[in-house]
Each structure stands twice: as C-alpha cells, then as structure tokens.
Design a protein that fits this description.
- By secondary structure, the protein is α/β, with parallel strands linked by helices.
- It has a single domain, classed as NAD(P)-binding Rossmann-like Domain (Rossmann fold), CATH 3.40.50.
- It has 8 helices and 7 strands, in the order βαβαβαβααβαβααβ.
- A 7-stranded parallel beta sheet has the order 3-2-1-4-5-6-7, sandwiched between helices.
- Helix 1 packs across helix 8.
- Bound molecules: nicotinamide-adenine-dinucleotide and ligand 0WE.
- The site of ligand 0WE has 16 residues, from helix 4.
C-alpha cells in the first residue's frame, strides 16, 4: 500500500455516521498515512461519531456548527494544537437546507431558507479557508463535495443547487487567492449515494436507479470511490490541480440524453 498522505495532518468536517462521504474520506486518508482530526455537528451525533473517530486514532473529535464562527475558531485551534501548528488538508463535507425547501417548488424559497442553505453549504468553505490557510505553512489542500444540481436542474434539489453553484464558484475564487501560498482548493462532484442527507428525500431511490441507467458505467458510485478520488486530490499526486471540480459519478454528467436500450 502506497502511503499517499504519509506525514500529513488533516481536519474533516461532515461525519454524521458510517455512511457519510466525509467518513469514507477520513478513513481512506488515515489508511494512506494521514493523521485525521474529526469534527461533527451537534450533540445528537456525538454517540455515533466518537467511536468512528477512535477507529482511525483521531487526535481530536469535537463538535462544530459551521454556521458559528466561535465553533470554527475552536475547531481550528484544536487542530493547531494537535498538529503543532501545521495543517495540510481540510475536507468540507457539509450541506444543509430546510427540508421544506427541498420538497416545495423552488419559487417558494424564503429569504431565511436561502440564507441558511448558503451559509451552511457554501460560505462555510470560505470560513474554513480563512482559518486553515495560516496553518498551511508547507502548502495544503482544501477539498469540498458538490453535486450536479449546481450545473443543471435536478427536481427537488432546489435551493441546494443554488448553494452548490456558489460553492463551486467559491472553489475557484479561493483557489485563485490561495494558490500563491501553495494552497490548492478543489471539489468532487459525487453521483447520488444513499447517505443520511439523501434519506428522507421522496423519490431518491428512483433517482438512484435512473442514475445507474444513464451513467456510462451503468451503475452508481459509492463512498469508497469518492474517497479514493479525494485521497488523490489531497495528495501531492495532484500538486498541479487547483480550482477544479472532478466528477466522480460513473460518467453520468457527460450524458445529454439517456442511452438507447442496451
Ligand atoms: P451526510 O448527512 O452524512 O453528511 C452531511 C453532513 O453535514 C452531516 O455530517 C451533517 O452533520 C453536516 N452538517 C449539516 N449542517 C451542519 C452545520 N450547521 N455544521 C456542521 N455540519 C453540518 O451526507 P453526505 O451525503 O455524506 O453529504 C456530504 C457532502 O456530500 C454534502 O456536501 C453533500 O451535499 C455532498 N454530496 C452528497 C451526495 C449524495 O448523493 N449523498 C452527492 C453529491 C454530493
Ligand atoms: O447535497 C445533497 C443533500 C443535501 C441535503 C439534504 C437534506 C435532507 C434533510 C441538505 N439539506 C437537507 N435537509 C434536510 O432536512 N445531496 C447531493 C443528496 C441529494 O439530495 C437531494 C438529491 C440528492 C442527490 C434532494 C433532492 C434531489 C436530489
């Protein structure tokens, strides 16, 4: 096993349970030699996340609401302390919109619902970048997770699609500003995967089925496939890549119409 992340220190946001894409990335990063600190949202998740963090010998596992500046300050302070002031990567695997805003028609989105989705799902990457960059003394990498609903209309993705479009633009602006400091910023646009964030979306199963029929590989992707691409983007193998959004979706996004019968 090549240790692509040997000696690197990382901080992962967005672990809710063993199905979380962020968990798959944390686990893969640890397997590839990184030290990985974990943060999670809210006391309800502590019971699930603390044992996962223990599995990868996480040097810390602390709560953080990414819409709270004080929480973010505390989280990056914990990372600075655990890692002796040197951080190499951050994984942003966080998104939230009010459930009603994903179920109702998009034109009914409230000002407050829009602001919430943008704050938690898009601004939070910038909030992390401004805290991470000063700790990335040897250069570093930020990685976020996005979805095709940023590019094209996906029924019910609604305000999350608008937030992901802002997130992807944020990737490019952050990459431009942090590049001179050796900090790369990229995104992975993952195909649909059944996680906590996907459960409770009516019709998600049908969407998964359709994605698997449309995609050139004739299947959907899983968390491990996203995590493998994440390890690459976080590693020095990707040292020439920044401001990029890499699709890990079995090719679904390239299709302009569903395939004719196989
Ligand atoms: P998940 O539910 O496991 O992860 C979402 C995470 O966001 C959770 O850990 C949750 O606690 C966290 N979160 C929500 N509000 C927060 C807040 N205020 N502060 C801190 N954390 C908060 O689901 P997932 O599918 O693994 O989602 C991870 C990322 O992947 C998200 O950005 C999502 O948009 C993206 N994504 C998911 C899919 C999919 O089909 N599952 C596809 C493409 C992209
Ligand atoms: O980014 C996401 C999901 C993000 C999400 C999910 C929820 C569900 C529960 C954000 N906020 C909430 N709020 C809740 O209350 N994905 C990429 C997964 C996803 O969600 C969809 C999808 C896909 C794919 C919603 C509608 C259509 C497709």
């Amino acid at each position: 096993m090549t240790a692509l992340l040997a000696g690197k220190n990382g901080l992962v946001f967005g672990v809710a349970n063993h199905r979380s894409i962020a968990w798959a990335i944390a686990e893969a990063a640890h397997r590839h030699g990184a030290r990985v600190g974990v943060s999670y949202f809210g006391e309800r998740l502590e019971r699930r996340v603390v044992p996962l963090a223990a599995q990868i010998d996480a040097p810390f596992c602390i709560p953080c609401d990414v819409s709270d500046d004080a929480d973010l300050d505390a989280c990056f302070a914990a990372a600075a302390e655990a890692f002796d002031g040197r951080l190499d990567f951050v994984v942003h695997g966080v998104a939230f919109a009010q459930r009603d805003d994903l179920l109702n028609r998009f034109n009914l989105t409230s000002r407050a619902g829009h602001a919430l989705a943008m704050d938690v799902s898009a601004y939070s990457l910038t909030a992390m970048a401004r805290r991470a960059a000063p700790l990335m003394t040897e250069g570093g990498a930020l990685l976020t997770l996005t979805y095709y609903g940023a590019e094209k209309v996906i029924p019910r993705y609604n305000v999350m699609g608008v937030a992901k479009a802002a997130l992807e633009a944020g990737v490019r602006y952050l990459a431009a500003d942090l590049g001179p400091d050796g900090v790369r910023v990229n995104g992975i646009s993952a195909g649909p995967i059944k996680t906590l964030a996907a459960s409770g979306i009516p019709g998600f199963r049908k969407m998964l089925g359709q994605a698997g029929e449309i995609a050139p590989l004739r299947r959907t992707v899983d968390q491990a496939e996203v995590a493998d691409a994440a390890v690459f983007l976080l590693s020095d193998m990707a040292r020439g890549i920044t401001g990029e959004v890499l699709h890990v979706d079995a090719g679904q996004n390239i299709m302009g119409a569903p395939p004719l019968a196989d």
